[in-house]
Amino acid sequence: MKKILLFLFLGAVGFTAYSCDNDDDVIQTVDYDTIAQMADITGSFSSTGNYTISQGLDIPSTYVVLVYRLSSGNVWQQIPKSVYLPDVAGKPTNRVFDYNFVFNSQNVEIRIDDENFTLPTDLTSGEISTYLSNQTFRIVLVPANTSGIGGAKSKQAAVDYSDYNAVVKYYNLDESKVKSTKVN
C-alpha cells in the first residue's frame, strides 16, 4: 500500500510540475499596431524632372514598399513594369521602356528607366498622354512580417504582390481612405 501511495504522490507531483510549465506567459515583443498604408500620387514625367516623380513618405524599416500604376480601365499594374510600344511610321521600331522605383526611409522615387529610344521625341502625342502625362501611382506600405500580425489574416498562404486586389484583400486595406497627392 505504501508503494501505491508513493507512486500516486510522485505522479501527482510530476503532473503538477509539467502542467505549471506555461510557455504562453512569455512576453511578446511583436508590434500589433503595425498596419498597411496606401497613398496615391499623380504627376507627369518630363525631361526637366529627369523623367522622375518623387513622393516624400516616412517609411519604417519594417515595411515592404509596393508601387502600382493605374492603367486603362482602372486596373492597377505592379511596377517595375516594361512597356512595349507598337511600331509607328516615322518612329524607331521595338520601342521599350520600364516604369521603375527606388526608395529609402523618407522618399519613393518613380522613374522611367532603360528606354531604348529618345523620350519624348520618339513618342507620339497619344503615347505621351498615355504613358507620361498625369500618371497615377499607388504606393502601398505593408508589414514585412507576413505571419498574420499587423492587419493580415493569419494562417493564410502568402499574398501575390503582383495582384493589387489580392494585396488589398490580404491586408484588409480600405481604398476609401487613400490619400492623394499631385506632384510636379
UniProtKB/TrEMBL annotation:
Q: Signal peptide position in this chain?
A: 1-19
Cross-referenced PROSITE patterns, in alphabetical order? PROKAR_LIPOPROTEIN
- Please indicate which superkingdom the organism of origin belongs to: Bacteria
Q: Which UniProt keywords apply?
A: Signal
Name of the protein in its database record:
DUF1735 domain-containing protein
The source organism is Chryseobacterium kwangjuense
- Give the lineage: Bacteria, Pseudomonadati, Bacteroidota, Flavobacteriia, Flavobacteriales
